[in-house]
């Protein structure tokens, strides 16, 4: 076994492993690369890196269009169904709805989040499902909610989408027009992605 006690040896090992993973699903994302960088300089042990990777949170942020307008009753039923499923599977997040459009953040362990997102993509109530961000992180942004819900008017929803899809283009206008604190949290967390 190679000696990984020096920073140079750790950096060579990381470079080698990263090169092998290029163009595969194993290539490190930003969060994983950050952990590897901390390992390289000796700030984290390999055991700590593995533990943090095991505990990481998968985030999937997407937008979609509903196939029909949701009534208040249908929205209530959707939320009740979502919250029950999410509680059972350790998923938290935020759902935003406006005039047949959804933006949703799912966060939790990768397996359950990926399973739920695949279900959403096949759900006949959704069309034009577009992934805005899919990454790992150390934290949840809506940890207290099995599924938070925000209903906004079309003009504010426009600025939410603009902030998520083109964050640097209209930052001052987004700040001015997005008032809901949960949507601001979402934008702060994902507009840099």
Can you give me a brief rundown of this structure?
The chain is an alpha+beta fold and 193 residues long.
Top keywords for this entry?
single chain; 193 residues; alpha+beta; Alpha-Beta Plaits; five-stranded mixed beta sheet; 8 helices; 50% helix; elongated
Give an overview in words.
There is one protein chain. The chain is α+β, with helices and mostly antiparallel strands and 193 residues long. It folds into two domains: 7-55, no CATH class; 57-190, Alpha-Beta Plaits. It has eight helices and five strands; from the N terminus they run αααβαββαββααα. It has helices spanning 7-21, 30-40, 46-55, 72-89, 110-122, 154-165, 171-177, 181-190; strands at residues 57-66, 92-98, 101-108, 126-137, 148-151. Strands 4-1-3-2-5 form a five-stranded mixed beta sheet, sandwiched between helices. Helix 2 runs antiparallel to helix 3 (46-55) and helix 6 packs antiparallel against helix 7 (171-177). The two termini are 38 Å apart.
- Low-pLDDT residue spans: none
CATH topology of the largest domain: Alpha-Beta Plaits
Task: State the CATH architecture of the largest domain.
Answer: 2-Layer Sandwich
So what's the overall shape? elongated
**Given the structure, what is the number of helices?**
8
Please identify the top-level CATH class of the largest domain. Alpha Beta
| Helix/strand order | HHHEHEEHEEHHH
Query: Structural class of the helices, strands and pairings?
Result: alpha+beta
In what range is the share of β-strand residues? 15-25%
Oligomer: single chain
Q: Considering DSSP H and I runs of 4 or more, what fraction of the residues is helical?
A: 40-55%
- First-last Cα distance: 38 Å
Average of per-residue pLDDT values: 86
- For the report, how would you describe the main beta sheet? 5 strands, mixed
Estimated radius of gyration = 19 Å
Number of domains: 2
Q: Quick one: how many beta strands? A: 5
Q: Strand order across the biggest sheet?
A: 4-1-3-2-5
